């Protein structure tokens, strides 16, 4: 939390600011306001906190005992609107003070159903009248979005999630507290590193609670097992934010040699992104191709190769009926991804998610998706945190042109249906999963017998063969004939969407790099006999 910026605002006669803070950090933020802002040599003012439930109370902070409150006489008029009464109290207060108004922002937002014009007007007046005084106001809450009438009057600040360095530093205080309470702390440097990685994306209060829970659950001992509990807390939090932590891939990628080489060449650079700035850090990859060709598996494989978590984002789930909430959800989610960084952010089937954001599309959501799309593009352009974005698309024509233009992603790859060599590799990987002992000539024969099959369809054929072997009580003895029968009973998607496949290949010829080697077909020489009548 950058308290020096708040001090500068107040010294510059900017009397009202908003402070968007995660809810678990409310108490910690209030403590920082007391210790770092109110007690600053250039400020020196008492702090009062207001909530709709408790009214106006004076706040005192002690390093040992924390926050304490006391009622402020004459601040609450039971015969008047409690919010207007609090604002009037601030206006009439004769001494200096920092007034922290907690959770007032819903009445000042862009939602016309909740916006209170009287409260907005009163606060707007205070933005002017308090300039000549030593009274300052902080609007504190989570997800603050103010109406346009207050734009330029109230300076908006955000309490970011702690960085890995801040987490590591705070652990020292946490460990000391546990030791003072006679608990055992048994952590070496490697264990602390794991704890830091697990805590990224959580607030101080969230992972501090997790450490205490882990210590109590482990009979008063804090050791490396605590990282699993902290990690689970993060998983639960991310799910509530519509971010899913994807597991490592069940099998390796089959084929896609050029794409694998491209990824491998950027592994060192991505890992060095936080220390080297002369070379731009890898920022993202757009994968276009038919369903089932392994695009999502690529994202999971990158996370596994780079040893970073994979966050899967469901854009549609961010939509909210309240005005401005969808965009706020997007901003909050992206800032969480930055806090978890380094990481992979997977946007699966982005063509469906952002289809209505295209310039030629008809919007049915009052422009919400267009604004969310704008928020995402701005973040992509401005982000400095090592968040590598992997977006997948099945239909390139549905993507807004702003997203697919050169420079938005590091590269655009076309993931075609696997060629015969790649099909053999994919079959071998999935057969190994069931411990099947097929010989290379048999696998190559199956690859030749499955033209136009996607990786997902090959996997399904192997699974079907395994089920047949199990039913025949000879599993894991899977025979080539089992797989061949499953292939024969499958109609590949590419046959049903022949025109779409051809259109994608024509687009890729001029607009994308191929993720696979182009299969060379040797047609040989043909002798013909011409009849001359």
TrEMBL record:
This is Uncharacterized AAA domain-containing protein ycf46. Keywords: ATP-binding, Nucleotide-binding. SMART domains: AAA (SM00382). One of its GO terms (molecular function) is ATP hydrolysis activity. Residues 281-419 form the AAA+ ATPase domain. It comes from the Bacteria. Belongs to the AAA ATPase family. Highly divergent. SUPFAM superfamilies: P-loop containing nucleoside triphosphate hydrolases.
């Amino acid at each position: 939390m950058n308290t020096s910026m708040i001090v500068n605002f107040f010294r510059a006669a900017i009397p009202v600011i908003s402070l968007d803070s995660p809810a678990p950090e409310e108490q910690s933020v209030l403590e920082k306001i007391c210790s770092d802002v109110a007690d600053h040599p250039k400020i020196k003012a008492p702090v009062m906190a207001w909530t709709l439930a408790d009214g106006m109370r004076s706040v005192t902070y002690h390093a040992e005992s924390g926050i304490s409150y006391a009622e402020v006489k004459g601040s609450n008029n039971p015969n008047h609107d409690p919010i207007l009464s609090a604002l009037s109290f601030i206006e009439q207060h004769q001494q200096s003070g920092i007034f922290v108004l907690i959770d007032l922002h819903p009445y000042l937002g862009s939602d016309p159903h909740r916006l209170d014009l009287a409260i907005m007007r009163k606060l707007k007046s205070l933005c002017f009248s308090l300039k000549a005084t030593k009274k300052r106001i902080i609007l504190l809450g989570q997800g603050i979005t103010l109406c346009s009438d207050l734009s330029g009057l109230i300076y908006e600040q955000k309490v970011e999630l702690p960085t890995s360095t801040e987490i590591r530093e705070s652990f020292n205080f946490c460990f000391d507290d546990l030791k003072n309470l006679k608990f055992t702390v048994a952590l070496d440097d490697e264990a602390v590193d794991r704890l830091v990685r697990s805590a990224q994306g959580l607030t101080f209060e969230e992972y501090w609670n997790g450490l205490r829970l882990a210590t109590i659950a482990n009979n008063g001992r804090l050791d490396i097992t605590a990282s699993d509990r902290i990690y689970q807390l993060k998983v639960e939090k991310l799910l509530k934010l519509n971010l899913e932590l994807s597991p490592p891939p069940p099998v390796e990628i089959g084929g896609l040699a050029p794409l694998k080489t491209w990824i491998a060449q950027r592994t060192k650079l991505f890992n060095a992104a936080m220390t080297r700035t002369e070379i731009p850090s890898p920022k993202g990859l757009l994968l276009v191709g038919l369903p089932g060709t392994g695009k999502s598996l690529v994202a999971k494989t990158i996370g596994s190769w780079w040893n970073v978590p994979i966050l899967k984002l469901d854009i549609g789930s961010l939509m909210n009926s309240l005005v401005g909430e969808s965009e706020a959800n997007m901003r909050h989610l992206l800032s969480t991804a930055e806090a978890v960084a380094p990481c992979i952010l997977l946007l699966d089937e982005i063509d469906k998610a952002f289809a209505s954001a295209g310039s030629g599309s008809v919007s049915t959501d009052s422009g919400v998706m267009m604004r969310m799309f704008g928020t995402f593009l701005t973040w992509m352009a401005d982000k400095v945190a090592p968040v590598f974005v992997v977006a997948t698309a099945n239909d390139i024509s549905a993507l807004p042109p702003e997203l697919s233009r050169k420079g938005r992603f590091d590269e655009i790859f076309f993931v075609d249906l696997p060629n015969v060599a790649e099909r053999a590799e994919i079959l071998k990987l999935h057969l190994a999963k069931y411990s099947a002992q097929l010989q290379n000539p048999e696998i190559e024969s199956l690859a030749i017998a499955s033209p136009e099959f996607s990786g997902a369809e090959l996997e399904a054929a192997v699974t079907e063969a395994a089920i047949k072997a199990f039913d025949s009580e000879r599993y894991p003895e899977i025979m080539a004939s089992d797989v061949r029968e499953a292939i024969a009973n499958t109609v590949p998607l590419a046959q049903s969407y022949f025109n779409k496949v051809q259109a994608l290949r024509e687009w890729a010829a001029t607009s994308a790099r191929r993720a696979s080697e182009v299969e060379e077909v040797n047609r040989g020489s043909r002798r013909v006999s011409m009849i001359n009548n």
